[in-house]
Amino acid sequence: MNETNRVYLYDTTLRDGAQTSGVDFTVADKIAIAQELDALGIDYVEGGWPGANPTDNAFFADPPKLPRAIFTAFGMTRRPGHSASNDPGLSALLNSPAKAVCIVGKTWDFHVDVALAIPRDENLTLIADSIREIKARGREPLFDAEHFFDGYKANPDYALSCVQAAYEAGARWVVLCDTNGGTLPHEVEAIVTEVAKRIPGSHLGIHTHNDTENAVSNSLAAVRAGVRLVQGTLNGLGERCGNANLLSLIPSLSVKMGFDVGISKEGMGRLVHISRMLDERLNRTPNRHAAYVGESAFAHKGGLHVSAVEKDPASYEHVDPSLVGNRRHVLVSDQAGRSNILARLREVGVNVDPKDDRVGQLVDLVKQKEYEGFAFDGAEASFELLARRALGEVPDYFRLAAFRVLDERRWNAKGELVTMSEATTKVEVPGPNGPDNVMTVAEGNGPVNALDQALRKALIPVYPALEGMRLVDYKVRILNAQDGTKAVTRVMIETADRHGHRWATVGVSANVIDASFNALSDSITYCLYRSGAAIDSTKAA
Amino acid sequence: MNETNRVYLYDTTLRDGAQTSGVDFTVADKIAIAQELDALGIDYVEGGWPGANPTDNAFFADPPKLPRAIFTAFGMTRRPGHSASNDPGLSALLNSPAKAVCIVGKTWDFHVDVALAIPRDENLTLIADSIREIKARGREPLFDAEHFFDGYKANPDYALSCVQAAYEAGARWVVLCDTNGGTLPHEVEAIVTEVAKRIPGSHLGIHTHNDTENAVSNSLAAVRAGVRLVQGTLNGLGERCGNANLLSLIPSLSVKMGFDVGISKEGMGRLVHISRMLDERLNRTPNRHAAYVGESAFAHKGGLHVSAVEKDPASYEHVDPSLVGNRRHVLVSDQAGRSNILARLREVGVNVDPKDDRVGQLVDLVKQKEYEGFAFDGAEASFELLARRALGEVPDYFRLAAFRVLDERRWNAKGELVTMSEATTKVEVPGPNGPDNVMTVAEGNGPVNALDQALRKALIPVYPALEGMRLVDYKVRILNAQDGTKAVTRVMIETADRHGHRWATVGVSANVIDASFNALSDSITYCLYRSGAAIDSTKAA
């Protein structure tokens, strides 16, 4: 592929992505993410803004080794009244070990007049001086043209003169920013086309925000109009509605549009991993509907449809899921037919002869369970257990003999309202001389937490694999809502182990506590089954 | 605005949106959502597929009154071997009360050859016959051209002949579907431009999926190329990565592109509400980063930027947030909060002088409650009570002194697994000689039902208005999911009285039973307040 076919990727997860509400990177996070981005094959890794906050100072003071990527510092043009070489902000950038420096400057006349309050020509000088200084100090200069599209709409000549000043002063890349995120794709295409008449596309970049849900499309439109650098973030992190999502852009640019984005086939296969890694680091629930990398991105529902997909995946899937490290996912639902169940079984690694009589029984069992209110979409671990139990593969690790949960709310002697939950469980576990009945009692924040605590007290001495297992999500839904609190309750639980593996289980009962117990019980059993726990009577308490 | 400037909106939340993994609409959900869509001003509300499953059969058997929208049934073309008038699938559609019928048919030669396995000409006949039958039976016919873009890429002549067959047979709208979701915006624009040379744009529609994160952009590209009907879903629900998100499309089409989408200014102002209402119904966490309607969509971080935003919002916000019912979120105290609260108060019929000091206190109270985890979108009765209590308008009908709930699960003497819930409450109610403490005990199907029963036993003798009140929905969500069962629990309850009036309340606590009690207590209080119950000590037990 020739030079003009090469699109460079610039990641700003660690700087613009850090503006996301609720996101707070530690230095360790920044190091790990920068290394993942480098391994993926991203061209520019923007580490942050040295001089702006203690985290970025610490990160830039001792940055990770990035064998491939250009480590980049972000900052702003020199301020009025300082020469570029004496500007404290620019100095912080140039004293950092960054190989490239990206500075943001104004290009909207209104902001020059009101926010900077300097003559418009002086703004051009600020931009040109700053770029020249970066170049003189041996770093690669980039210019982020803030509010460029709004500026262009207000005063095209002035906006163009700003980006031309940066280009003529030696900016390697002039990046057109849709800072407020309100520009639509056809506008981006038209405006970039005009800019590309003055500055070659091989020196133009694009930076978009998702305020109209068009950040990805705006970036693609800019590339089609000539730009050859794209700024974005992993999972579309960023303030308000986020920045352009690199994980959606990469496969569209390379697989679909034929651009060389500098990422190898192996790198492409890591996209799902990188997406999940970031969510794990930030303790965010992964978006299962994310393009390309979401857990549901290649999910198929429905019996007839599933057999067609299996016969000819290419005619039902827009790309091969394995290209981005994803996989086909066959959902079990009340439309489940035999082919659906078989496909789903293969997916969870259960091998059964399609002619096996037990497949028919399993289809009936799934339908019966769904009629009772179970939902196996999104509770794959319960589905796998159901199947493996039907095939006789799951040992009885423990048996609940009884539980009792007491919840109380009252005014105490000091006149304060207090609540209390206490659970008692009696569990049968393997012991040295046959089954042992273990009784435990525990308090909790609420009834399910108390029950969880009491069960763990009983089981962890026998099954140490359960240590570190934690509940990460808990949802309750009432079915047959006509009957209100008398109706059937469905509880979905998501659990994680200490390695970050997650699994989801479901429980159904008229009683929310009982339904929670059922989901909890499946979750524990699944953890034990997956860890290969043996029923070892010698460990019994 | 003239006819060609009118873009029609077609909502498929209740059909294609129901394919979302984890989404499972009840009939009550479908009724409520259809009514919200109608009130918003959506042109076509697709209710589902009559004949395909029991929920859709029940919904179509007794559909809600929609004064404005065209209630639409979805199905498929007649099957080979049946005449259109004898086809069981088509009959189910035409025996439904739908005013319009949208049928899906094949347009990709490969699928005709392999999935249908009929001669390609016969497929054209299936399409034309089905459309003619719908028209002959006095319904408005629409044609969803499945896999149209992939089909066009493989065999443009055949794909075009399919949609022309539908159009010539009398389809009001021919909807071009990107079924696999892999088509990029520039391809959509090019292909739609070709189609529009054969079929007028005033009869063309678009249906896109978000597999490359371009569903919204693909829809906009199609409109720019001439189509005048857009199919999509609320919040972009839909299988895999979702369908085109109508809540992003509506403001871009109308506010930014100047199309008339048939939605009034008041309707536009309900977009945020509708987004949250759907999430609450489905027990999904709202996406705070959603374009236009997300909680963070107009969030500004503190400092200098905020005062600049306050001075000149238009230069920092791509649209006015109030246009879509959203508001600016800033860290400093903001006018937006105050006017928002005032608007919401007016909405629930609470009239208060904007200059009243208590409005400021109420703003602080709402913020405090929301910080604690309350969500008043979808729990309007609790919001109204909060406001009216702050204004001193709500009597203390009763006061809970204490409750205790016991849940038990054990094997009985016959070897059967039995569960039991028993609740004891101590409630202070007005009595003939001052407050009376009434102790009651009741059993229930589950802990919340037991508590509900015990409370009623105590209160109905004093407040007969509570007779006939019943719980119709009950939902639980965990906040701060990182902590699993130890986290804060939010319970939303929907209640109806014997006249069919419904109201929703919310309760928050670390303990699910306690949170349920809080929501239940609000629900009872709201019922009494609405019924105008007096605190009448002579009726006390």
- How far is the first residue's CA from the last residue's CA of chain A? 66 Å
**What portion of the residues of chain A fall into strands of 2 or more residues?**
15-25%
- Tally of helical segments of chain A: 18
What is the class of the largest domain in chain A in the CATH system? Alpha Beta
The Cα radius of gyration of chain A reads 29 Å
Under the CATH scheme, the architecture of the largest domain in chain A is Alpha-Beta Barrel
Oligomer: homodimer
Classify the secondary structure makeup of chain A into a structural class.
Answer: alpha/beta
Instruction: From the 3D structure, determine the CATH topology of the largest domain in chain A.
Output: TIM Barrel
Could you name the ranges of chain A where pLDDT drops below 50 across 5 or more consecutive residues? 481-485, 537-541
Mind summarizing the main beta sheet of chain A?
Answer: 8 strands, parallel, barrel
- Return the domain count of chain A: 3
Enzyme class (chains A, B): transferase
Protein name (chains A, B): Citramalate synthase
GO molecular function, one term (chains A, B): 2-isopropylmalate synthase activity
Family (chains A, B): Belongs to the alpha-IPM synthase/homocitrate synthase family.
